[in-house]
Amino acid sequence: VQLDESGGGLVQPGGSLRLSCAASGSINTIYGMGWYRRLPDYQRELIAHIDRDGNTKYADFVKGRFTISGEPAKGAIYLQMHSLKVEDTGVYLCNGDLAPLRGVRDDDHWGLGTQVTVSS
């Protein structure tokens, strides 16, 4: 199973970016996918999540600015980010809650991340 992120980059405060994540490999079922940000201590904080039924949840600090979309059941999600702030800077990781063809459901599937830098 592989999760590939794209779309990161350098943007000025107030700008926009769109991140994409694609899941591939021997996957049986995808239950949900999400975006997290890596913290300095290598923990991860939730940014946004979407399940296979289209239900979404967001971190309070991105509500009204970020929108998660896509078809997680098909392995494709996006994160549209508007009104970016300097404090949004970080490595954004794609997460998958899925069951591989040979294995059990596991929500510990991660991409390598894409860097988002907000700076003037």
Describe this entry's structure for a reader.
The chain has 120 residues and is mainly beta. 0% of the residues lie in helices and 60% in strands. Strands 2, 4, 5, 6, 9, 10 and 11 form a 7-stranded mixed β-sheet that branches. The chain is elongated, with a radius of gyration of 14 Å. The termini are far apart.
Structural key phrases:
about 120 residues, mainly beta, seven-stranded mixed β-sheet, four-stranded antiparallel β-sheet, about 0% helix, elongated
Q: What's the pLDDT, averaged over the residues? A: 96
Order of helices and strands: EEEEEEEEEEE
Helix- and strand-based class?
mainly beta
- What is the helix tally? 0
Number of strands: 11
The major beta sheet can be summarized as:
7 strands, mixed
**Low-confidence parts lasting 5 or more residues at pLDDT below 50?**
none
Concise overview:
Helix content is 0%, strand content 60%.
Secondary structure layout plus pairing:
Layout: E1 2-6, E2 9-11, E3 17-24, E4 27-38, E5 44-51, E6 56-58, E7 66-71, E8 76-81, E9 90-100, E10 106-110, E11 114-118
Parallel strand pairs: 2-11
Antiparallel strand pairs: 1-3, 3-8, 4-5, 4-9, 5-6, 7-8, 9-10, 9-11
